[in-house]
Write a structure and sequence with these properties.
Low-confidence stretches: 1-6
Shape: elongated
Number of strands: 17
Number of domains: 3
Oligomer: single chain
Radius of gyration: 26 Å
Mean pLDDT: 79
CATH topology of the largest domain: Vanadium-containing Chloroperoxidase, domain 2
Distance between the termini: 60 Å
Strand content: 15-25%
Length: about 500
């Protein structure tokens, strides 16, 4: 048995070296200039850290979550490789015989060869991102593969080092996804919103009309199955995005309770209809992004069904901007922004149908970083100022940066205002703001809380964004937060803080 193992090991080593030599002998047009530089850019995770920062600043909320997953996966893979992998198999680096001098690195690595840390980091980051955002994963996959191949191409790793490193990176991405799912389930905790007395109880769903956005996909379909089982008398209307506003307005006008199944953009449209009709809202999370439902403490469609059946609801504040896109006030449950993010969102929405969501977001970020100019505004009647980004959250967000992530209470009736000052290039400014804490004042970033804000002298054609929707801003508008404006169903918290 030992002799067989030695024979197999020797045969594998010979195969590994032959493949290494084949790569060294082959001429790869254009690769001499690109691959060594790409490998150096990935040293110490710099390439992936830069990619994560760009996605976090300019990407959607889902893309930001994917960037965090990618960084976490990279950290896990790197820690595993450097503490266990490198010291368990102390394989020497390949001899550089046959590798052209133009490919060789100026400074050769001193650590052991097996497995490849660069490959593990590259595939860990790409896998972590892809599992949360397939579009961004498709953009990063060829870059990760090129980094991994560059390690053989420059002569610092055998092919098997790269293959094993890449496999470990992929495994790290799946481990982080599992941990993130567990953490997300634990994070769905209700806040301290005021109880809405007198919300109608609908034990079998009679009087509830639920409008379902069919474009939301499998998540909406799963929520619909739960709804039909738990509240069989509820009326269900399925429609696509173009029919959604009219369907919501009609359902709100003739129902005791308006229900909605979809993501944040769909829920925003439903909240607008419910506010104008003066009826309570039942939210059945079913979209790609469900930040409002998560911050409210709704774990899923089952929790909403229970709350509707028992008549358990809370009051939440609603952000408002006046005038809105149709001349009437517009509303936001999550956030409102002017500047770099609406510009990026507009480019992405325009290009995504042609080239896909991930490539469109990457191209949009490049366009904004390259050509975007700060927006000059007059705030609260003061002197004009230039800003790269104005962000207003419905309620206080936790976390650093110009576009933070999470709220504990949707009933406080305050705007969380964050400004990134103009000047210089947008990339450095937005990145600097991303590391600035909340409620801060610096030459780059200002964060404060207030009840209302008047914005004037808005240049013609300036876009705005609210809850992921995109529109043109008027020449002047007022932002404010309406306390306890909307009644939303949510189960009462149990003693452990979860809903029941």
């Amino acid at each position: 048995m030992a002799d067989q193992e030695l024979t197999w090991s020797g045969a594998f080593a010979r195969w590994d070296r032959r493949l290494f030599d084949a790569v060294a002998r082959r001429h790869w047009p254009g690769a001499d200039r690109v691959l060594p530089r790409l490998g150096r850019a990935a040293n110490h995770g710099v390439l992936w850290g830069g990619a994560a920062a760009a996605i976090a600043v300019f990407g959607s909320a889902g893309a930001r979550k994917a960037a965090v997953r990618g960084v976490a996966s990279l950290a896990l893979a790197s820690a595993t490789i450097n503490t266990v992998g490198k010291w368990s198999v102390r394989r020497p680096r390949p001899l550089l015989e046959g590798v052209p001098l133009t490919r060789q690195l100026a400074v050769q690595p001193q650590t052991t060869s097996f497995p490849s840390g660069h490959s593990a980091s590259a595939f860990a980051f790409a896998t972590g991102v892809a599992l949360a955002s397939p579009g961004w994963g498709a953009v990063l996959a060829p870059v990760a593969a090129s980094v991994a191949f560059s390690r053989v191409y420059t002569g610092v790793h055998y092919p098997s080092d790269v293959l094993v490193g890449a496999s470990l990176g992929v495994a790290a991405g799946f481990v982080v996804r599992r941990l993130a799912r567990d953490a997300q389930e634990a994070r769905v905790v209700p806040g301290d919103e005021r109880t809405a007395a007198g919300a109608p109880a609908l034990p079998d769903g009679a009087g509830l009309t639920v409008v379902v956005n069919t474009a939301s996909g499998t998540a909406a379909a799963a929520g619909l199955d739960v709804l039909r089982t738990r509240l069989p008398e509820a009326e269900v209307i399925e429609c696509d995005g173009s029919e959604l506003p009219a369907a919501l307005a009609k359902a709100a006008a003739r129902s005791t309770v308006l229900g909605v199944c979809g993501g944040d953009g769909t829920i925003n449209a439903a909240a607008t209809a419910a506010l104008r009709a003066g009826v309570p809202l039942a939210v059945f999370p079913g979209g790609t992004l469900n930040h409002f439902a998560m911050d409210l403490g709704l774990a899923g469609a089952g929790a909403t069904c229970e709350a509707v059946a028992r008549g358990q609801a809370v009051h939440v504040g609603v952000g408002r901007f006046s005038p809105g896109p149709d001349g009437e006030p517009g509303y936001f449950l999550n956030n409102f922004s002017i500047g770099a993010y609406p510009e990026l969102l507009g480019h992405r929405l325009r290009w995504a149908p042609r080239i896909g969501g991930g490539p469109a977001a990457l191209l949009a970020a490049w366009r904004v970083l390259r050509s975007q100019r700060p927006v000059r505004l007059r705030l609260a009647g003061g002197r004009p100022r230039s800003v790269w980004l104005l962000f207003a959250g419905n309620g206080t967000y936790h976390g650093t940066g110009p576009t933070p992530r999470r709220r504990d209470n949707l009933g406080e009736g305050l705007l969380d205002l964050r400004l990134v000052h103009g000047g210089g290039r947008p990339g450095p400014r937005l990145l600097a703001a991303a590391f600035t804490g909340p409620l801060s004042r610096s030459p780059v970033h200002v964060a404060t809380r207030l009840r209302s804000l008047r914005i004037g002298d808005i240049p013609a054609g300036t876009p705005l964004a609210y809850d992921g929707e995109h529109a043109q801003a008027p020449s002047a508008l007022v932002l404010d937060d309406i306390p306890d404006a909307l009644t939303v169903y949510r189960p009462r918290p149990a003693q452990d803080g979860t809903t029941r």
